[in-house]
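Q: Please design a sequence for this.
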């Protein structure tokens, strides 16, 4: 396997996941980890109680499909924290969701990365682009995933390590 421009890191696309209570935003990078782009927003199913025990929820299955189709080398999941850095109930939910992703994607590493302000940044970017506030809902999770991924890519570039905390 070849290495990426971030010395010592394996080459491969990176996938970011912005976990919401209703929707999940996805963003992906190129194989060299240079640019983050939005992929899609999928309905959140995992954790809703609508999935029989032992079954893979449709949203987790969709994420696993993206990992395979795009040759993803690492999945970054946003970890919401308070501005103080303390974790909340949303943090626990994101940790649980990241665990489900890790089970579904097998050997591909899953990392939790601090996502403080990602949704705020996403709304600001959409507003700056001229998109009406009421139309943000359909894409804000994708844009938040782009913000999460770009932050992780910056860590990779600056420190030559994977960003965040590895799940499992």
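A: Design:
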């Amino acid at each position: 396997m070849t290495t990426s421009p971030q010395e010592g890191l394996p080459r491969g696309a990176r996938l970011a996941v912005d976990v919401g209570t209703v929707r999940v935003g996805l963003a992906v990078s190129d194989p060299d980890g240079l640019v983050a782009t939005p992929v899609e927003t999928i309905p959140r199913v995992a954790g809703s109680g609508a999935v029989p025990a032992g079954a893979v929820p449709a949203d987790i299955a969709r994420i696993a499909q993206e990992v395979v189709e795009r040759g993803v080398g690492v999945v970054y999941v946003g970890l919401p924290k308070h501005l103080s850095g303390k974790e909340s109930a949303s943090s626990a939910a994101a940790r649980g969701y990241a665990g489900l992703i890790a089970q579904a994607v097998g050997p591909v590493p899953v990392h939790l990365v601090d996502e403080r302000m990602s949704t705020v940044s996403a709304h600001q970017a959409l507003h700056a682009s001229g998109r009406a506030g009421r139309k943000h809902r359909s894409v804000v999770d994708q844009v938040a995933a782009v913000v999460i991924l770009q932050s992780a890519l910056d860590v990779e570039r600056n420190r030559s390590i994977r960003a965040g905390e590895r799940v499992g």
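Q: Thanks. Anything notable?
A: The radius of gyration is 15 Å. The chain has one domain: 13-166.
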